[in-house]
Amino acid sequence: MIRLEGIQRVFQVGEQAVHALADVDLSIGAGEYLSIMGPSGSGKSTLLNLIGLLDRPSAGVYRLDERDVTALSDEEQAQVRREKIGFVFQFFHLIPRLSAAANIELPLLLAGVPAAERKTRVSRLIEDYGLAERADHRPDQLSGGQRQRVAIARATVMQPAVILADEPTGNLDRATGQEVMSILEGLAAGGVTLILVTHDPDIGNRAKRKLRMVDGRVVSDQRT
Amino acid sequence: MKFTDVLLFASASLSGARMRTLLMVLAMAIGVAAVVVLTSLGEGARRYVVGQFSSIGTHLLIVFPGRTETTGNPGMLIGSTPRDLTLEDAVALTRSRAVLRIAPLTIGSALVSTHRRNRETPVLGSTSELLEIHHMELAQGHFLPPGDPRLATPVCVLGATLKKELFGTRSALGEWLRIGDRRFRVAGVLTAQGQSMGFDTNEIVIVPVASAQMLFNTPALRRILIEAKGRENIARAKRDALEILAQRHEGERDVTVVTQDAILETFDRILRALTLAVGGIAAISLAVAGILIMNVMLIAVSQRTQEIGLLKAIGAAPGQIRQLFFAEAALLSMVGAVAGLILGELGSYAIGVIYPVLPTTPPWWAVLAAFSTALVTGILFSVMPARRAARLDPVMALAGR
After folding, report:
1. What local confidence, expressed as pLDDT, does residue B187 receive?
2. Average pLDDT, chain B
3. How far apart are CA A76 and CA A79, in angstroms?
4. Would the CB atoms of A75 and B319 count as touching at under 8 Å?
5. Beta-carbon separation of A54 and B312 below 8 A
6. Minimum distance, in Å, between the CA of residue B305 and any CA atom of chain A
7. Is A108 on the interface with B (CB under 8 A)?
8. pLDDT of residue B71
9. Chain A nearest CA to B281, separation (Å)
């Protein structure tokens, strides 16, 4: 479902051109559970951002569901993100003035889903993620694990085909990290394509398919 | 994204930054209030002046002998003098149905003397109607006797100052005095009133028009005052007066009719222009408020970079981001404008309490203009910040850079 061909991403840093991604060819099938590991600066986050349409490649073709999405306009890319992709970040990125429920509701709001339907979908997710007592709390009143659960609920509320997680446990203690991982893996088991970027080999090795990146290149691609 | 959701989201982000929102609303409110208060002051001044004019008789027309219009008339012989206005002309004017009452006027100067003092004084010859037409007030006694204007009754009415000079504090009523070579009996004394229509009513003596004509030995009237039946009849009264006098003057249109309305209109125009100018100056503060909104929105964009990045990541299109910031600016200026209107109305009311003679209701057009200017400037000045927000690179924005 995701196919990258000859993807390059070049950043201009002063006079120097830095190849964050150099000639990446990658194809990911629907429902795969995949981790991307590598040292910092190896280009794993850049790759994730490209897959999530937050960034555009300098060269190469990216097909999502057989459709070339690199050529789409900003508005069209936003629509693809809205409908097919869910993000989970290391720093949660919840909007501080909104309640947990309102944060989860945000993608539905942007998609123009009617208020009644929004409410049922959000309250179901709140139940599923055990946030019922925290629904009206603002992010600063939540623990790290609760915040990440809100963020995951937000990423899944549109029922996307792909979840992109960038160091989802990077800001959590080990126990909470395990808890978050099991939620994400539960999603993967349910048929969602899960792509995970991490430093942590313990986390990364849980995936069924493991990518290693160094200097903008994929150096190993293991399946178990 | 639904319109109400945009508004709700925008108002949530506004209430998230309470101090900033409050100050912004205040700036906008002061601008709007300034426009409302200043225009209502200007409008109040205009209405005050118009009101004052009305009280001295807005329905007044004045007939002068001779034509002052500068229309070329090659048929007219050089040196032909205008015909005099006569008492008969004046009486004939009452035939018009648009005319409520008339007062003929002769003006001259004569020596007025009691047995002790004498004085050179302007003498006004008129009829009993003058009192009403000219809104004069009597302090004592009666005005000229009503009836046939051709009767030269030997009575007179003194101006307040003249009375004091001739009689001091003694009562003047019923006393005899000489004007020129004739004797008159004092029938009444006017209250002190001041300058009006070119002469000081405190200094004059008024006698019946027939007496004045004898005194100055002329049948000519200096002018005829006409009071029309209401404002709407002024134009007709003018037409009728010209018509009647032309008939009586063998078809010659040799008089000039001036309406007081024309003078009033000029004042009206001047003061309206003044109000506009003052309102315009106040509107500058609205522009300043607009620039403040731009500044604040730019700060908001840089403060909320991560939030914008996140919105983009979860699928907000650039257009939606723009919309959200527009909505925020529009809400800010709308709340500011409403607060300003309330403030302005209160201010106008306060001025009305302090200066009760000034009718200080802000004109509707100024209220409308202030409100829409506030909205338009608010939205206009948020174009740049909103576009900046929409153009942010999502990856950079998420990293807070």
Report:
1. 92
2. 84
3. 5
4. yes
5. yes
6. 11
7. no
8. 47
9. 39
B209 and B327 assigned to the same domain: no
Rounded Cα–Cα distance for residues B112 and A129 (Å):
110
Q: Please judge whether A112 and B2 are an interchain contact, meaning their C-beta atoms are less than 8 angstroms apart.
A: yes
pLDDT at residue number B39: 84
Among A44, A46, A53, A54, which would you mutate to test the B interface (most chain B Cβ atoms within 10 Å of its Cβ)? A54
Burial (CB < 10 A; 0-12, 13-18, 19+), residue B67, is: middle
Interface residue A147 vs chain B (CB under 8 A):
no
CATH number of the domain within which A218 lies: 3.40.50.300
Q: Would A148 be classed as within a structural domain? A: yes
Nearest alpha carbon to residue A69 among A2, A14, A125, A156: A2
Q: Do A82 and B395 touch (CB under 8 A)?
A: no
- Give percent of chain B above pLDDT 70: 93
Q: What is the span of the domain harbouring residue B131?
A: 103-227
Measured distance CA(A78)–CA(A155) in Å, rounded: 14
Q: How confident is the model at residue B80 (pLDDT cuts 50, 70, 90)?
A: very low
Chain A's closest residue to B318, CA to CA, is: A75
Mean pLDDT of B118-131: 90
Cβ–Cβ below 8 Å for B314 and A87: yes
Pairing of strands B182-190, B176-179: antiparallel
Q: Is residue B248 part of a domain?
A: no
The stretches in chain A having pLDDT less than 70 are none
Number of domains in chain B: 2
Closest B-chain CA to A160: B314
If you ran DSSP here, which 8-state letter would residue B231 be given? G
ipTM for this model: 0.91
Who contacts B130 (Cβ-Cβ below 8 Å, separation ≥6)?
Answer: B103, B105, B124, B136, B143, B144, B206, B225
Tokens at B62, concatenated: 């004045």
**CB distance A87–B315 less than 8 Å?**
no
Q: Is the pLDDT of residue B127 over 70?
A: yes
User: Nearest CA to CA, how far is B296 from chain A (Å)?
Assistant: 18
Check whether residue B206 and residue B283 sit in a common domain.
no
Tokens standing for B97? 């149905």
Q: Which residue of A has its CA nearest to B17?
A: A97
Nearest to B313 among A81, A109, A112 (CB): A81
Q: If residue A57 lies in a helix (H) or strand (E), which one and from where to where?
A: none
This prediction's pTM:
0.67
Residue B32, in any domain of the structure: yes
Number of CB pairs, chain A paired with chain B, less than 8 A apart? 74
Do B315 and A111 count as a contact with CB atoms less than 8 A apart? Answer: yes
The CA radius of gyration of chain B, in Å to the nearest whole number, is 35
3-state secondary structure B327-373: HHHHHHHHHHHHHHHHHHHHHHHHHHHHCCCCCCCCCHHHHHHHHHH
- A97 vs B1, B13, B317: nearest CB: B13
Write the CB contacts of A130 (distance below 8 Å, at least 6 apart in sequence). Answer: A149
CB atoms within 10 A of CB B231: 11
Render B130-186 in DSSP notation, one character per residue. HHHHTT--EEEE--SPPS-TT----EEEE-HHHHHHHHTTS--TT-EEEETTEEEEE
Which residues lie below 8 Å from residue B177, measured CB to CB, with a gap of 6+? B112, B113, B114, B156, B166, B183, B184, B186
